[in-house]
């Protein structure tokens, strides 16, 4: 812990008084240090869902949910989305500072040199059913990577950690694009290192050997923004999963596979796919009230996908940038008024003025708009979450590297509030 504890809290119970140090971070609320609580007081704390628990110390990303602020290494996301580009953001997240021109000139080819997959991996893809969800494929391929790149799995060697990190950032677009190509029965398209990161990904997804494919720079810019906006997001579920997996000393490829698995859920990264599927299911503007009523009905598990956030309670700053990007891309493509978009716009309007959504602070989140852009670019909904995973890989890696380098790091091992049966003796089956 780098911070000095200047304050403390007192916890009184059962005639005991326990002093708990309080740390004041650079930004955000103070944090009560309860690490010695069990040893001193023989009690645990209870916080399922971690709504009030800081699981680690981190210097990478900061979110102020009330202000709608997201900072990568101190830089606001809207400035990065407008002025920077994804590989520069990767450098920032990994090494803590924006690169100089010389550092960037060295970093970009260091990444692009690793964009190809081991040729044997092409056979690995062929083991999947053609109709497998691309998330299942990328999770499997990512997990298998440790068996293709043995020379970068020793987590105690900083050089191997670095090589593994660069390999994953470089290869993930190829892994995701090949999952897509496999699902539509087209040949794999190899990476082109003369293209920028986003253009190369679009090329691997949409080019075919039979004809020329030119990446539209506006589409490439929108893609790059989607990557930048999703690059990291503090201690969310998948990042915490990566850290927890990494805390046991698991190799980096396996840890990122764990993150991908967690991201897949509809409450997390899977929401972009669910949001667009929901817009299509609603179909026409006149059916919106029915879905709004279902979202409000306590007895109906239905939720408006792409709305709400655990941390952002005023607006999602990523959604603001994404909305602008959506307008730009849809304008370019002349898709200003298709039925899905009409439903999206009307749903956004109604939800933002409906007292239920205002009261509960439910705003459209990043996934609401990213799905609309990805659909316009031509991606099927099943590719939305793999694209999120591709972009988040750098964040997972930065967080994993930070954890491994932390000398106070321990294996993550939460405790529980046990509510099961008390001690009882085994009974033979004939006596039950
Ligand atoms: N539609 C309708 N009601 C909702 C929604 C929604 N999308 N989200 C929350 N609520 C209600 C919820 O029913 C609850 O009502 P009550 O207080 O009456 O019980 C209240 O709002 C608080 O919800 P919560 O589930 O306690 O909030 P949470 O912080 O645990 O959940 C969330 C956050 C993002 C999981 C949730 O808002 C949700 O399921 N949203 C839809 C899925 C989605 O879009 N997820 C993407 C998140 S952004 C991308 C990412 O970071 O992964």
- Main β-sheet description: 3 strands, antiparallel
Radius of gyration: 23 Å
Uncertain spans:
none
What are the distinct ligands in this entry?
A: carboxymethyl coenzyme *A
The fraction of residues in strands falls at: 5-15%
How would you describe the shape?
globular
Our measurement of the CA-to-CA distance between the termini, rounded to an integer number of angstroms, reads: 54 Å
Q: Give the structural class.
A: mainly alpha
Mean pLDDT: 93
The order of strands across the largest sheet is 1-2-3
> Total helix count?
18
Number of DSSP strands? 6
**Percent of residues in helical segments?**
40-55%
List the secondary-structure elements in sequence, H or E.
EEEHEEEHHHHHHHHHHHHHHHHH
Please write out the topology.
Layout: E1 5-13, E2 16-23, E3 31-32, H1 37-41, E4 61-64, E5 69-72, E6 75-76, H2 77-83, H3 86-95, H4 101-112, H5 121-125, H6 134-148, H7 158-184, H8 197-206, H9 217-230, H10 237-247, H11 252-263, H12 271-282, H13 288-296, H14 317-333, H15 339-353, H16 355-359, H17 366-377, H18 384-405
Antiparallel strand pairs: 1-2, 2-3, 4-5, 5-6
This protein binds carboxymethyl coenzyme *A.
Residues 233, 236, 267-269, 271, 295, 303-310, 360, 362, 365-367 line the site of carboxymethyl coenzyme *A (CMC).
Question: How would you explain this protein's 3D organization?
Answer:
With 432 residues, the chain is mainly alpha-helical. The protein has helices spanning 37-41, 77-83, 86-95, 101-112, 121-125, 134-148, 158-184, 197-206, 217-230, 237-247, 252-263, 271-282, 288-296, 317-333, 339-353, 355-359, 366-377, 384-405, and strands spanning 5-13, 16-23, 31-32, 61-64, 69-72, 75-76. The radius of gyration is 23 Å and the shape is globular. Carboxymethyl coenzyme *A is lined by residues 233, 236, 267-269, 271, 295, 303-310, 360, 362, 365-367.
């Amino acid at each position: 812990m780098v911070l000095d504890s200047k304050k403390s809290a007192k916890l009184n119970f059962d005639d005991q008084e326990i002093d708990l140090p309080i740390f004041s971070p650079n930004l955000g609320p103070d944090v009560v240090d309860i690490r010695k609580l069990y040893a001193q007081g023989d009690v645990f704390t209870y916080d399922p869902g971690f709504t009030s628990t800081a699981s680690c110390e981190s210097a990478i990303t900061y979110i102020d949910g009330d202000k709608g602020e997201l900072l990568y290494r101190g830089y606001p996301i809207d400035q990065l989305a407008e002025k920077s580009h994804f590989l520069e953001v990767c450098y920032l997240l990994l090494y803590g500072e924006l690169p100089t021109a010389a550092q960037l000139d060295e970093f970009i080819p260091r990444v692009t040199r690793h964009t190809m997959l081991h040729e044997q991996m092409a056979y690995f893809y062929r083991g999947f059913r053609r109709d497998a969800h691309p998330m299942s494929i990328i999770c499997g391929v990512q997990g298998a990577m440790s068996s293709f790149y043995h020379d970068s799995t020793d987590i105690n060697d900083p050089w191997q950690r670095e090589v593994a990190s660069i390999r994953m950032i470089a290869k993930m677009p190829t892994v995701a694009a090949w999952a897509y190509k496999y699902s539509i029965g087209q040949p794999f398209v190899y990476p082109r290192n003369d293209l920028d990161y986003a253009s190369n990904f679009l090329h691997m997804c949409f080019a075919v050997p039979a004809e020329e494919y030119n990446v539209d720079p506006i589409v490439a810019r929108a893609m790059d923004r989607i990557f930048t906006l999703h690059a990291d997001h503090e201690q969310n579920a998948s990042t915490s999963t990566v850290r927890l997996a990494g805390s046991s000393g698991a190799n980096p490829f396996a840890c990122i596979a764990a993150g991908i698995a967690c991201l897949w859920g509809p409450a997390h990264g899977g929401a972009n796919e669910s949001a667009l599927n929901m817009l299509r299911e609603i179909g026409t503007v006149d059916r919106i009230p029915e879905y709004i009523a279902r979202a409000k009905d306590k007895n109906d598990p239905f939720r408006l996908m792409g709305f709400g956030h655990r941390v952002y309670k005023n607006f999602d700053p990523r959604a603001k940038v994404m909305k602008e990007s959506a307008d730009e891309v849809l304008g370019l493509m002349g898709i200003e008024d298709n039925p899905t978009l009409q439903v999206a716009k009307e749903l956004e309007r109604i939800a933002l003025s409906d007292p239920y959504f205002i009261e509960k602070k439910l705003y459209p989140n990043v996934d609401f708009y990213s799905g609309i852009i990805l659909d316009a670019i031509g991606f099927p909904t099943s590719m939305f979450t793999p694209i999120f995973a591709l972009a988040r890989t750098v964040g997972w890696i930065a967080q994993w590297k930070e954890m491994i380098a932390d000398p106070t790091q321990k294996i993550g091992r939460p405790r529980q509030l046990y509510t099961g049966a008390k001690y009882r003796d085994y009974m033979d089956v004939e006596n039950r």
